[in-house]
From TrEMBL:
Membrane topology per record: Lipid-anchor
Organism: Sphingomonas montanisoli
Gene Ontology MF: a single term: efflux transmembrane transporter activity
SUPFAM superfamilies membership: Outer membrane efflux proteins (OEP)
Protein name: Efflux transporter outer membrane subunit
Major location category of this protein: membrane
Length: 471
């Protein structure tokens, strides 16, 4: 149709008002300050699956918890729903570029007034039948619609990165919570063994007191020590229950029906391949999300700037109409081309200027948030690299301290049994031994959790073959 001959030229004339996109610059070092000898450099893969990295710990219970969390966690369900919303919004924004075509029909029974203008005094009745459609199109001369569509696509990509980040954070939270639970199991087992030892020592002191060998002061100290250990056990049992309840909530199950059997803590920390700082920008899904939102904000500047220019719209209507006989005949057809309207602003009291400034402010905010996300990512990696190094030494030294304290406690009890010392020496030695062993358990848990958090800080994306257990 000749009336549409000008449309290709109009489409080709379309442009974008968005500024040239330049991502914000964040300070990126050539290497991490905290380096761990022997750890390999990882390949960047921000869009890659995060990998079943937790299987490197070799714990079937943890594997099962992670699998259940992936399918039932309300956190992941909410992130998926947000991604679905972003996808729908992007599709709708893209649909704005294209014409809208609608069609339908009406039928009505009418009677005219005898007193109407130019009436001949009759009151005719008729049935009005109409079948037709309309074609409406805003021709995107200045790129407003296309910039909005691009912003929608970028927001969808950011939401996809948010989903990947939520999955990775959940996986890390489940693993960290699980190791805290196993640490609690180890502490409970230690306290139960200690209570048995304190009970035997209290019985020995009572027997010596009955025989006139030990003083009432020694007996009181032994009883105080035993009761204190029992109180510590009750608190440890409470802590374990709360950790179990927290895991249930993480994986989307009711704490009332969720139980994890007690077991020894057998897992060892794992070493994750360490990417260079520049590669970290590509691996971390939260960094990818922040960058996509920054790009979307840049496109919305174009949307705001395009509002300064006239909007060109085209309309077309057509169909069939009759009050009698067959409606679908040539004689009953009608069409109307137009209106072809060009409407632009003349005076808006500064509304469009304010919209542009707001869009630029949103871009500046997104840029600052991107830089903050990058710096936070570097901090997390450095923190966990430092933790991996220092906690390795701390665990070795704390294990040695616990072994020495245990030997001292045994020697003090022997000296007391032989009458070479009073019970205060035993109390001091055994209390120190218990504290040293509990601290050794705590350091072991922190090492495991630090290795989990390092995987998360590096963006995941590892499989079991890429990870190795550390001694």
């Amino acid at each position: 149709m000749r009336p549409f001959a000008f449309l290709p030229a109009l489409l080709l004339a379309g442009c974008s008002m968005a500024p040239a996109y330049r991502p914000a610059q964040a300070p990126v070092a050539a290497a991490y300050k905290e380096q761990v000898p022997g750890w390999a450099e990882a390949a960047p893969a921000d869009a890659a699956p995060r990998g079943d990295w937790w299987t490197a710990f070799g714990d079937p219970v943890l594997d099962d918890l992670e699998a259940r969390a992936a399918t039932a966690s309300p956190t992941i369900a909410a992130a998926v729903a947000r991604y679905d919303q972003a996808t729908a919004i992007a599709r709708r924004a893209n649909a704005e570029i294209f014409p809208e075509i609608s069609g339908g029909g009406t039928i009505s029974r009418e009677r005219l007034s005898a007193g109407r203008p130019q009436s001949n005094g009759t009151r005719p009745k008729y049935t009005d039948k109409t079948i037709g459609g309309s074609f409406d199109w805003e021709i995107d001369l200045w790129g407003r619609l296309r910039d909005g569509a691009r912003a929608g696509v970028l927001e969808r990509q950011a939401s996809a990165a948010d989903l990947a980040s939520a999955r990775l954070s959940l996986q890390a939270a489940v693993a960290s919570g699980y190791f805290a639970l196993r640490g609690s199991d180890a502490e409970i087992a230690l306290l139960r063994r200690t209570i048995d030892e304190f009970a035997r020592a209290e019985k020995l002191t009572d027997d010596r007191h009955e025989g006139g060998i030990a003083s009432g002061l020694d007996l009181g100290r032994a009883q105080t020590q035993l009761s204190g250990a029992r109180a510590d056990l009750s608190e440890a049992l409470l802590d374990r229950a709360m950790l179990e309840h927290a895991l249930a909530a993480l994986i989307g199950e009711s704490p009332s029906t969720f139980t994890i059997a007690s077991a020894a803590m057998s897992a060892r920390p794992i070493a994750a391949p360490v990417a260079t700082p520049s590669q970290l920008l590509e691996r971390r899904p939260d960094i990818a999300a922040a960058e996509r939102r920054m790009a979307a904000a840049n496109q919305r500047i174009g949307v705001a700037r395009a509002a300064w220019f006239p909007a060109l719209t085209l309309g077309l209507d057509g169909g069939w109409q009759t009050t009698s006989g067959d409606i679908l005949t040539k004689a009953n057809s009608f069409w109307a081309l137009g209106p072809l309207s060009l409407l632009g602003p003349i005076f808006d009291a500064g509304r469009r200027t304010a919209d542009v400034k707001r869009a630029r402010g949103e871009f500046d905010e997104a840029s600052a948030e991107y830089r903050g996300t990058v710096l936070g990512a570097f901090r997390e990696v450095e923190d966990n690299l430092a933790a991996a190094r220092e906690l390795t030494s701390a665990e070795r030294d704390q294990d040695a301290a616990a072994a020495a304290a245990t030997r001292t406690g045994d020697l003090a009890l022997t000296r007391y049994h032989d009458g070479a010392s009073d019970y205060l020496e035993v109390v001091i030695a055994q209390t120190a031994a218990l504290q040293a062993e509990r601290e050794a358990i705590g350091v072991r848990v922190r090492r495991l959790q630090a290795s989990v958090q390092l995987v998360r800080a590096l963006g995941g994306g590892f499989d079991r073959t890429a990870l190795a257990q550390k001694p």
